Amino acid sequence: MTAVGMAVLLKLGALQPLENIAYNALFRLRGEASWDDRLVLVAVDDASIRRLGQFPWSRRYYAQMLDVLSKAEPSVVAIDLLFSESTPDDARFAQSMTQYGRVVLGQAWDTTGLPLVPVPPLRDAALSLGHIHTEEDADRMVRKVLPQIQGEPALGVAAIEGYSLVQSLIKQPDLNRPMWLNWVGSPLRQYSFADVMQGQIPQQAFRNKIVLVGVTATGIEPRLTPFDINPTTSGVHIQATIINNLLQQNVIHPIGEGWVLLIVLVLGPGFSLLISSRYTETQVAIAAGGSVGWVGLSLALLKISYLLPVALPLGLLATTTLASAVVERLRLNALLQQQVKQMWQTYEPDLVLRPLDTPEPLPSAGIAPSMQRVTQLAALADRFGRSQSTQAAIARSLSVGLVAADRDGLVWFCNPVAAEWLQIRVGGQLETQLTPTWLPLREWQEILAALEGQWQLNGTAKPPHSREREVNRGDRWFSLKFEPLTNDGASKAPISTSERRSLNGSISGLLLLIEDITKSKQFEANLDRQIHELQQMSQLKDEFLSTVSHELRTPLTNMKMAIQLLKISTAEQQRVHYLKILESECNREAELINDLLDLQRLEAGVQITQSEVIRLQEWLPPLIEPFYKRTEARQQTLAVKVARQLPSVVSDQPSLERIVAELVNNACKYTPPSGEIVVSAEWTPPHVELTVRNSGTEIPEHELSRIFERFYRVPQADPWKQGGTGLGLALVKKLIDRLGGTIAVKSGAGSTAFTIQLPLRREE
Questions:
Q1: Which of 152, 217, 384, 485 could hold 509 in an S-S bridge, CB 3.0 to 4.6 Å?
Q2: Half-sphere exposure for 682 (CA within 13 Å, toward CB)
């Protein structure tokens, strides 16, 4: 009905004043825009009138002004003035117009409909004519113009046509539809008529531009715009806005009347359906949000030159909300009157807080008729709740906690176990004790909403499902099970689903059962942990077998290929090359097998180690000695730095030698020519630190955590394709762990360093 009413108001035009106000407000909210720099205004302003005399002027002034402008070579000159009466200076003015050749003059119609056109000499000299007719709305503001009247285009449209003859083609508007103005708001670049006529303005200001000449003097043709209410602007700004809109192609496109009617017919019923089943506060909030959203949408569309109706949708939202609230109030009042008596008859036998032979009337005296039924319903619910609490027969010797509360969370029963665990008593608030200690407030609200929502969806006497949560309290686990309490008396008199919702809001209360499940949770946790460990072990085994099979197969494949090539090769040089490949792959296979065996021994704990005293000053240099020739051949620099005051360590010497050799070997492998490798030993109590640092290479930060994994190689870190087993660093890590030490890697600033920390004495 509201949609139909708004549609009628729309047809009668009753909403137009409000739409005009909204139109102005939208433009002010949008803010000022910028004028196109291809348009300038020569203004007949107050300063020009003071200098040249009373307006209107002799037409020789316009001729002089046009002579000056013609030297600046503007694209077109449009004059927003009427020259419909002959004067002695018409010939002089016409001569200047003819010499320039691109002048557009204005024309209009008087109140009787007779045309007001320029005198023949001027009309013949003009490039074209354009009407300056405008129609104001009821609030005296011009919002749209007719781009063509009786075959004559508007002055701004004619100016654009002239501009298109000498410059780029500008798309013209639909001449058969009103043109809605997209107001700019900011000041238009303008120059005083007198200054232009006297040549005081640089010619560059007008070159290749549209020059609009019009009156801006105070009191002459004042006009209102959304940005100019007090003070007003001048009528020439209408033609300036037309030209600017066409130059920037941002003419306003209002939504058609058909779309407006569609909005009314869809928005009204749709919004009514949306809010019909909600609380009044929610309805108002939705209406307010919808109004703000519509205004925001209108503003966003205005910025891209589309105009939506505002007053109509906002009025539709407001009237629909009001009508929905009134209808809901009337329906609720009728439903209350029907149900209060029926509820009393249904539940009155349960009210045992008074003698059965002394019936108690419903409270109604002294209460306004409109509120009597609500008061009676509240009194009935209160008495029924107290009656039910006295009838409760719940075992108090249970090992589980038991709490019963009404819909407001008021506890009317709790057994000793629940009282101890929850620190709650009869008459307390269940929510206060549960949140946030046992449950977050949001989760508690979700449980209540779920219980009520399930009951509403059932729509039958069947109770909704319970809700269960498990809560950890220190080192103990508890199971919280929430059961809804429904009105048993509902079965005595059938009530429809909609009536039940209005009657008691879904459920009358809830029952909470609390059970200590610590032992079962511990059992589950142990079982889950064991399952997870078994899954990890199985996954690691599968990954290891897959990788090992691949790594073992690769050298064998290369050896087979080398053998095949040896069989068919005839040149001695080729045979030597293939033999080297075969030897290299055999060594690689042997190294891989040995590394795998060593890793397996370390993981199984069967690797035999023997601790002995190692003097690092004497032990380290000979160990590095074999690498000097290798680094010289690769044009690398190798240095060993051992601190003087360095204590001896007690550790397994073969394992330590293998660790250092593996790290130095990697450094030699990945250091480019001219790079530097430094092996150092220092005493940093309580550890001895061995560091292998090489320059010229870096390991990406996201790869550092994986370099000690088996068969893992840093992508694109081996530009020389030297290869390897991929087990070296994994073996180093295992050996260091076996020796009771640690290893760390840092990479950055063009270098990579592996640092080993060893205890002075290895723990057996």
A1: 485
A2: 8
